[in-house]
Amino acid sequence: MQYLAHWPEYFQVLESPSGEIMGYIMGKAEGTGEQWHGHVTALSVAPEFRRLGLAGKLMNGLEEISERKRCYFVDLFVRVSNKVAVAMYEKLGYSVYRRVLEYYSGEVDEDAFDMRKALSRDKDKKSVIPLPHPVRPDELD
Amino acid sequence: MASRSHVDVNERRLRPIYDCLDNGNNKKAIQEADKVLKKQKELTCAKVLKALALLRMGRHSEGSSLLETIHQSEPTEEQTLNAMSICYKETQQYEKIASLYEAASKHQPNNEDILSCLFMAHVRLGNYQQQQRTAMSLHKLRPNKNPYYFWAVMSIVMQGHNDKKLGQTTFLPLAEKMTKKYIQEDKIEAEAEILLYLIILELQGKWQEALEILEGPLGGQLGNELNLRETRLAHVCTQMAKWDKVFKIYKDLLNETPDDWTFWLKYQDAGFHMVEEHISENKSELSDSTLKEMDSFIKEKIAAMSDGVLLRGPYLAQIEFRKQLLKRNWSCLESQEDILRLLQDYYDKFGHHSCCYSDMRLYVDFLTSEEVDKVFQAHSLILNKLPNCKCYSLVLSLCSMQVKQMTRHLVYIQLSRTMGKHIILSIDNALRLSKDLLLRYQDGLRFGKDPPLLVTDLQYSDNYLLLAVHLLLDVWTKTGDDIHLWRAIVHLELGIRESKSNYQIKLLLIRLYCIKGVFGPCPSLYDSMEIKHIMNDTMGYIVSNHVIRLGHFMEAGTMYNTWVRFFDINQKEASEHLMSSYKFGSFGRIQEFVEFQERLDNALQYHSAKTEKMLLNLIMQTDRHETTETAVESMNVHPLTDTPVDHSKLRDNRDLTISLSWDPPSLLLPEDNRMKSVEEEESWLHLRWTLLHILLLAVMVGRDITNKSVVNGNSDSGEDHKKDKQTSLELLKKRLDELQKYAHQCERFKEPRQYHIVQGPFRTRISEFLQGPHISAISIMVDCVDYVYTLTKLGLEESKPEKEECWTRMKDFSKNLIIQDVGSLIKESNGKRQLDSSGLEQLVASVESISYLTILSGVCNKGLNHLKNNWTRKSKKGKSPPAPQPETFVNFNAMITELSAVTKELHQIASSLDPVFTSVDIASLRLADIPEEEQLQRGAEHLVWNKVEHSIQQSSREICEVLHHKQFYLNTLML
Q1: Which chain B residues are closer than 8 Å to A110 by Cβ?
Q2: pTM to 2 decimal places
């Protein structure tokens, strides 16, 4: 709800004809200067509504809002083990910018990929040039 | 510069105190604060931090009095104010934060920060009037800062939310005028301000004005949210019945996003309104130009997908369009044949997606069962042949093709069930189909192996398992033979091993175990669904009606605590979100957040959990009367002033359709189930609330009796106390009267209500409470309390044989609490042994009543003890041989002895439930002789029996423990 109070425009929910929630996305815009970007905080599609392009639709919406806010790029974090998701984001035009070590804590800590997609304002696509070395979570800006 | 360095010095000195507080080292924080205060006596902030440390250590009175002194000195320094706010937040004294900043602001009226904090303090309190006043002060101070001005406007709107009538006549027009002024002076800066203006206009139903704004230059500035201007415009036009405009807006939106279902519905709705208007205006025949336009627009959208990704939207829109025509009996474009063909086409295109079922379900009502069969005719090859389990190779592409075929078949089976084709099957055929589906389920598991699924993924074939289990439940309902239910449980247990995140399996397992009186496995199933935040409200009902019913008191304590804490925390957090909304100017959210808060504050689940938690504490935390009094004190309730929950305000937020069921709509009736269940839940809550208050008030009466002896000789305060006592006793009697009358009104709940097995809610314990001896027992005992009170007031001489009768009545009646015929939970009928938990539920109800009667006896004991002391004193003074014990004492003791005997007997019954005690091994009973030969199944079957056995042991052990404490309690009550 803190996000909803701050970035209400970054919330989208998709409802099915029978009234179920098919999926949702929430995000935010933050950063200064050329780091001003849209961020995907959470994206989720219910199992029975997968492979219908809904995630792509939600992501398009988020990118569109970020374009209007004159962001330079959109980024997101994803578990390195979640191959299906990584492949899907690649299909949507995202690429791995860097690897974040032990970003997800749990029984076994797991690394995250920081994936990015440049928006029209970043003409030279500077924001997505991959970093050669992985970073630790405390080094994130 | 000088003052800056002064501040720096202070900051440096305070740092160690902050560090200690952050690390939770409160003791050291106090030492550090004292050290600073030695050097700098008047450093107020150090005092506040000391007070904070004291509060955190539980030294409340010291901390509070220190804080109070500082409060009265009316500090203005920022750091001090911040620290004090923290203290007040932690002690939940939110009014004090407001008065603190109010005072500070008086001293420094031009301090923007202080005023801004004051505004937020009022937001936290929901004091809209003060919000408005403070926002206006801020505006006067900084006339160029727009947000302050609009904080005031929003605060006025919210006053209208509180008082709808005044809102329309005064507040909203004022808010409108204020915003209009800024528009006219061209001072609007942010999109949020335009949105707020729209909210104000819409709340007043000023659609024309709203339309002008949206179509004008200000509307053009609404670009932050996707499609906001268009959808808002469409909403306004809908209100004004400007259908042609609505039609056009949604057509444009659909050109952008042809897969948005809401857009399609609204587009068609507008179109149909246009046609209807045309008919009524011209009193003429159906004009089909709009219909034709709609038809060709849909076709156009479908054609546009010919070489790209297929979207469900346009195809479903076409079916919806036909449905709407059919509903109106307009036959200009199609025939019924058409909807069948369209559904066939839809199944061809989307049948391999599992959502195809829920999409198609919306339209099969329009077809007969035979017609539905036709939908699947083209796919009969896939649908009817059971796949050969062994011969598939695991090549990825082939594998994924097979998944699609399997999903297609699943959609078919689900729709068949919805069409009522499963429920009519004979027992044999249902079992055969169930077996067939289980084979398909097991075969389908291979799809999850390569590529391997994530733990959070569900198995592709899980729904086969669920459908097979639903068939077993059909058979169980028809035959009453538990073997089918146990089989269902075993299959689900096996299923969960393969699909650890499938909450449908878990929900069903919880339900089935609870039906059989087995709560043991439920907490871990419930926890594994990671139910948190708002789900505590919407999903808690899954276990909340079982946990006490089945005698798992410890777990009940944990669960009720979790629920109550969620609601309590939410009340605090909600105000933080409101403050953020003001800070970021998200005015549209403010009303939503307030409504959300109201929804949670009035949640049925909240009020039930609160009441049950207190009743449970009265059972669990009491083994002497002193502990009862302590327990009541710590509840922080005010029985003298509390009023029953207003049913009209209660909100039922339960998500009652969370469990999947594919049953025909005529069997599911979710709304019907909800209405019936809400009525039952509300009545049950009311009975429980009244019972709780009877107990609380009785404890108060008991405390008052002793207070009288303390204040003896002080007539003034004695009178005061008398007044109070009168009220608590009177109110006690009034509540008892209410309980009896209300119970009388609840006759209709005597027969337990039945809801849908899979999807419906579960009944409350109201039927057992009304049918059993509980209300009578409580009533008689309250009479005893009343009698004791009279005696303490008028003296032992007032004891009359006819009044003494209440003790005997209680004594005789208490035997009714012993449950006949429990013996064992294993019942034999028709040569079959079945687990029957109804005795367990009765036993728990008796245990509860014994606990409450013990508390009431404790109250009597307090009064009688007081009398006894006086009597002993008097009889010692007398020279003559000691007088015999007054009859009252003898009778009371006889009643306690009987209660104790009843408790003992219940204890025996409870321990006989424990399979270990009776050396009956449930596992060897083979309640359900599962014929499957497979090792895996045997293992799972064994595991289920272990869980059952363990759960019943747990129930038995916990019940025994409670009774043990009650026996101890009762022993302390003998005079």
Answers
A1: none
A2: 0.90
